[in-house]
Amino acid sequence: MNSPDFENVLLDIAKKYSAQGPGYAQETVVLRQAAKQLEIERNLIEEQRLLTAWHSLFQKGILSWGYNIDNPASPFFHLVESDVVSSQ
User: Fold this and answer.
1) pLDDT band per the 50, 70, 90 thresholds, residue 84
2) 8 A C-beta contact, residue 24 and residue 79
3) Topology of 3-86 in CATH?
4) Pair 18, 24: CB distance under 8 Å
């Protein structure tokens, strides 16, 4: 599976968990679920590829750190709204 596929899996999980609140909108929760879904647990090379795909979602402006003012930084995250990104 290539990196864009990893990104799609991560983004789907991030969307689902973000909607459930800050207890779920956390980096480790999403990464563990993605590794399980992709069946790559305990495979260092694939886990590192997954981490790279995760960070790529932040570099592309799809995800941003922090969930809300009470949880403003990593490990919490939120989805960046397209109108916020386009106005920058």
Assistant:
1) very low
2) no
3) Arc Repressor Mutant, subunit A (1.10.10)
4) yes
